[in-house]
UniProtKB/TrEMBL annotation:
This is Acetyltransferase At1g77540-like. SUPFAM superfamilies: Acyl-CoA N-acyltransferases (Nat). It comes from Camelina sativa. InterPro entries: Acyl_CoA_acyltransferase, Gcn5-rel_NAT, GNAT_YJDJ. Coiled coil: none annotated. Residues 8-98 form the N-acetyltransferase domain. It comes from the Eukaryota. The lineage of its organism: Eukaryota, Viridiplantae, Streptophyta, Embryophyta, Tracheophyta. The gene is LOC104740872.
Length: 109
């Protein structure tokens, strides 16, 4: 029995997002500078209903957090999926969350 291959997540710098190769599922971000800190604000995660339940939102978050870690960025989890679902399930990623916002961020969506 063959195991299903994990979907590939790609960085689309021009559109400020990480996305599946088919461009259907994505996590959008905005970059901010705060003094000497560079902050990646994760503002929206989208997975179409046809791909729900495949773990794509989590894979998108992992890609964004790995990118932030590799580039020494802090993360602001504006997106409710990131703050309310991904981070509680992945506490080892919390060290990347921008310290001033980690307790007060709530999604405006």
């Amino acid at each position: 029995m063959a195991t299903k291959e994990k979907p590939k997540i790609v960085w689309n710098e021009g559109r400020h997002r990480f996305e599946t190769e088919d461009h259907e599922a994505f996590i959008e971000y905005k970059m901010k500078n705060e003094g000497s800190k560079v902050i990646m604000d994760l503002v929206r995660t989208f997975v179409p209903p046809s791909k729900a339940g495949l773990g794509l939102a989590s894979l998108l978050c992992v890609a964004a957090f790995e990118h932030a870690s590799e580039h020494s960025f802090s993360i602001v989890p504006t997106c409710s999926y990131v703050s309310d679902t991904f981070l509680p399930r992945n506490p080892s990623s919390k060290h990347l969350v921008h310290s001033e916002d980690s307790k007060t961020i709530k999604s405006s969506i």
